Amino acid sequence: MARFDGLSAVLLNCSLVHDASKSHTRRLLNRVRGIMATEGVDVELIHMLEHQVGFGMVPDTTEIGDDRDDWPDIHAKIMDADILVIGTPIWLGVKSSVASLAIERLYAYSGETNEHGQYLYYGKTGGCVVTGNEDGVKACSMETLYALSHIGYTIPPQADCGWLGEIGPGPSYGDEVEGSNTRAGYDSEFTNKNATIMTWNLMHTAQMLKDRGGFPVGGNVAETWREVTNAEDQDPDAD
Amino acid sequence: MARFDGLSAVLLNCSLVHDASKSHTRRLLNRVRGIMATEGVDVELIHMLEHQVGFGMVPDTTEIGDDRDDWPDIHAKIMDADILVIGTPIWLGVKSSVASLAIERLYAYSGETNEHGQYLYYGKTGGCVVTGNEDGVKACSMETLYALSHIGYTIPPQADCGWLGEIGPGPSYGDEVEGSNTRAGYDSEFTNKNATIMTWNLMHTAQMLKDRGGFPVGGNVAETWREVTNAEDQDPDAD
Amino acid sequence: MARFDGLSAVLLNCSLVHDASKSHTRRLLNRVRGIMATEGVDVELIHMLEHQVGFGMVPDTTEIGDDRDDWPDIHAKIMDADILVIGTPIWLGVKSSVASLAIERLYAYSGETNEHGQYLYYGKTGGCVVTGNEDGVKACSMETLYALSHIGYTIPPQADCGWLGEIGPGPSYGDEVEGSNTRAGYDSEFTNKNATIMTWNLMHTAQMLKDRGGFPVGGNVAETWREVTNAEDQDPDAD
Amino acid sequence: MARFDGLSAVLLNCSLVHDASKSHTRRLLNRVRGIMATEGVDVELIHMLEHQVGFGMVPDTTEIGDDRDDWPDIHAKIMDADILVIGTPIWLGVKSSVASLAIERLYAYSGETNEHGQYLYYGKTGGCVVTGNEDGVKACSMETLYALSHIGYTIPPQADCGWLGEIGPGPSYGDEVEGSNTRAGYDSEFTNKNATIMTWNLMHTAQMLKDRGGFPVGGNVAETWREVTNAEDQDPDAD
After folding, report:
1. Is residue D221 part of a domain?
2. Does residue A3 lie within any of the structural domains?
3. Which residue in D189, D200, D203, D224 has the most chain C C-beta atoms within 10 A of its own C-beta, making it the best mutation to test that interface?
4. Which residues in chain C have their CB less than 8 angstroms from residue B190's CB?
5. Which of A156, A198, C14, C121 has the most C-beta neighbours closer than 10 Å?
């Protein structure tokens, strides 16, 4: 029996490519998915642009006039999963508009709480997969992992992985490279090692939180923060 | 008996002010310290600019010509602690040069491993305290928390807190405000609530990791990543 | 006769609010528009979410399957204008998905050149207006102004302005404030001063470039960079 | 006679390497220097870590207790120059602590004004050179160019250049590469083209500003912003 049998994960691909099969980011997400599935995690890869997701800081944009909004269904899957990995390409050094949109829509629910009064995403574990052709993995990861942490996700060590070619125009992850039998990046030891470590760290952290019945309660409930040892009662001018 | 008795923490103040007592960031760090101490954590607040810390990507800059380098001593304390909180002021929207220096010096050891072969900082928990007079808490936190995660720290939910005044010049955290009995920010419910939640989340995460004997081993040892289910063996072109 | 009579500007509001009249960012953009109009600039304020703009790194997303794409019309207006100001709200410390989308769509044309062989946006001047309720003006401006510079815009001194309230939840720009006759931020001297300086600097720079017939040609044509004094011919190991 | 004979430039190398001759960033700065010198610009390359520059938001840190501070001399050279290029290596995806230090020290003078009442750095032109071994040129440039713009520098189109290797550990700019006659990056067409374009754009912009006698005065003097058409007088709620 696999070790992480009870866990589930959503990998959310925020590529700008409408056809999932043509997304470069999907290729690296697939490798993460493969590890998770082999280790027993119930994993689903969602391609944002195969869905119609509205703009707006509300849980459901049909309430603000959109004819259709697929986000509530995607969000329900994210809520059911222990792990969320956001995948994004890099454009001009930063994450895609689709990744920003996904994060905004996650954030739109962030005032809600779980049965303990903690913010909604407490107890879940977050990571990030980034591909580009030359520059920006860390810049994308910073923003993405910070957003996930801010809304309640726990972020394991080395919670991101990515691939980049040499500076300048060039092949994207998985593109054919003239005169080579290997597709761009598929044999990058660095990328494969980091994708492996990230995935295992996500699974370990999710398992640890699951074993504890969620993120420990105490001191992290917005409603009752004054009832515990709290900042307001401490002397800021102590020596 | 306090709940977090076995834990220890270093709060590293990366203020640009040489005299610790005049640092605004220290004031908010003091509140974090107060909560931790009350809850049984053995906590030390270190003011970087009371020490002489050299520039360079080496563990000890006396090896590259400096007469003195206090970093190895500071680093030893960080290695002994379960929790590290980096405190930084904001200048031009970003963290201080001293915070960047501290992170560089942490990173200079990052190739080293613990007894399991994991990177050195695995099993530790990281957070961030930011103060400024108008703008940039999240930007500073993004960079700082990402750096800590990258080198092995686990990042809890809402792992940062900060204070800012309204946009434009104005009082810094703890400055006297004309016509007011309260010092700037001391009664900010938002800042106090977030400082409280951050601190508890740091303690919970550190305790969870301590109870597990460190961050779980498996799949996260650079030397042996090919011996586990790994990215290289997964099909990037799967449907 | 006004001093900047021959100039034109597009202010692109990337708010997440569908109804333009409810956008907070629009209110500050309106002040920028007012200065420009008074000084003779032909200025148009476009509200992105009143249009249907597709995702994708192509000039026209109807070519990749969308039923409709309003971007080519918006882009034509941007190409006709001397000045572009991107307005964005802040969510989780960064610019909106709509702002990222606008920048991606600008970038999708960036391989094209003008009659001199310079990239398309050379000779134009760029700026940025940001509003939020607590944090992130500079972080949004950094990304936005960098993107504009990267694709060919000239960035004047102090090319951004914004408004933020004190840290934590609170009114957005222009919201009614209980017990006050003034709407939030409307009397902020800092915001008004910076909006004024930004606007004048945009107009001065645009006029300077117009007087020169565009950005000076020479050394900045990708096709012929080897024909001028160039980096490849310089000794990187010089003393 | 060269075209840019009357111009001067400071290239400020913020490498973490104490010995200038071992800095990778210096190598790319040298190519920028070569172009400038050939075109008649009076250019000086300063290696920050060959000097002793203090921490603190003051013009001269001997006033706050340092025995020595070389910054006032460096700053005097920067004030004499039309162009400033900040060179920085990348560590953990961001600019070096030394680059942050240089920017803080520039900022410490930013309240001062020139003879027109504009902020001190008005009329000057800024750029950025970044080298690393895998990731982060744009992230470093964003922060650096934004800081320069914020304090008064004009930023030309494509005001940065850089070099990166493929993702993961590898040679830095100018390192010997086994089995190759060329040093890493020296023949990168992308880097050489961008370094060329950046340098020319810096020279053109500086010349344009010099020909105008500095950045045009009007609407950008903090003391008198209410005397021109200004934001406060515009209707934020206009249709």
Report:
1. yes
2. no
3. D200
4. 167-169
5. A156
The minimal CB distance from A135 to the residues D94, D164, D188 is found for D164
Select from A239, D51, D60, D67 the least CA-distant residue to B19. Answer: A239
DSSP class per residue in chain D = --TTTT-EEEEEE--S-SSGGG-HHHHHHHHHHHHHHHTT-EEEEEEGGGS----SSSS-GGGGT-S---HHHHHHHHHH-SEEEEEEEEETTEE-HHHHHHHHHHHTTTT-B-TTSSBTTTT-EEEEEEE-SSS-HHHHHHHHHHHHHHHT-BB-TT-EEEE--SSSS-PPTT---TT-SSPTTTT-HHHHHHHHHHHHHHHHHHHHHHHTTSSPPSS--GGGGGGSS-GGGS-TT--
Q: Which of C92, C135, C180 to mutate to test the interface with B (most CBs of B within 10 A)?
A: C135
Using alpha carbons, list the distances in angstroms from residue A191 to A87, A151, B210.
14, 28, 30
Q: Using the structure block, give the residue that is written with the tokens 């920003």.
A: A100
pLDDT, residue C2, reads: 65
Q: Is the ipTM of this complex over 0.95?
A: yes
Question: What pTM was computed for the model?
Answer: 0.98
Helix, strand or coil, per DSSP, at residue B133 = coil
Helix (H, G, I), strand (E, B) or coil at A14: coil
pLDDT (0 to 100) of residue A183: 96
Quote the pLDDT of residue A167: 87
What distance in Å separates the CA atoms of residue A52 and residue A63, rounded to the nearest whole number? 15
For the segment C99-111, the average pLDDT, to the nearest whole number, is 96
Q: Tell me the residue ranges of DSSP E strands in chain B.
A: 8-13, 42-47, 83-91, 94-95, 125-131, 160-163
Total domains, chain B: 1
Q: List the chains bordering chain C where 3 or more Cβ pairs fall under 8 Å.
A: A, B, D
Of D92, D162, D168, the CB nearest to A167: D162
List chain A residues with pLDDT less than 50.
Answer: none
Mean pLDDT score across all residues of chain A: 96
Question: How much is the pLDDT for A2?
Answer: 65
Low-confidence ranges of chain D (pLDDT < 70): 1-2
Structure tokens at C79: 């190409």
Sequence-distant (≥ 6) Cβ neighbours of residue A78 within 8 angstroms: A10, A12, A84, A106
Is B3 part of a structural domain of the chain? no
pLDDT in tens, A96-108: 999 999 999 999 9
CATH of the domain at A100: 3.40.50.360
- Please give the structure tokens belonging to residue A239: 């020596």
Strand spans (E) along A57-104:
83-91, 94-95
Whether A163 and chain B come into contact, CB under 8 Å, resolves to: no
Q: Which of A18, A94, A107 sits opposite C92 (nearest CB)?
A: A107
Q: What is the pLDDT of residue A82?
A: 98
Of A134, A138, A189, the CB nearest to D139: A138
For residue D42, report the phi and psi dihedrals to the nearest 5 degrees.
-85, 105
Residue B169 confidence (pLDDT): 87
Q: Is A106 within 8 Å of A146 (Cβ atoms)?
A: no
Gap from A83 CA to chain B (nearest CA, Å): 14
Please check whether residue B238 lies inside any domain of the structure: no
Mean pLDDT confidence for C103-123: 96
Could you list the residue range(s) of the whole structural domain that residue B165 is in?
8-233
Closest approach of chain A CAs to the CA of D231, in angstroms? 28
pLDDT digits (tens, 9 = 90+) for C125-146: 999 999 998 999 999 999 999 9
Given CB atoms, is C216 within the 8 Å cutoff of chain D? Answer: yes
**Residues 8-27 in D contacting C (C-alpha not used; CB under 8 Å):** 21, 27
Q: Which residue has the tokens 């974090």?
A: B32
At C169, the pLDDT band (50, 70, 90 cuts) reads confident
Q: Among residues A66, A82, A26, A34, which one has the least CA distance to residue A50? A: A26
Burial of A171 (0-12, 13-18, 19+ CB in 10 A): middle
- In this prediction, residue D110 carries a pLDDT of 84
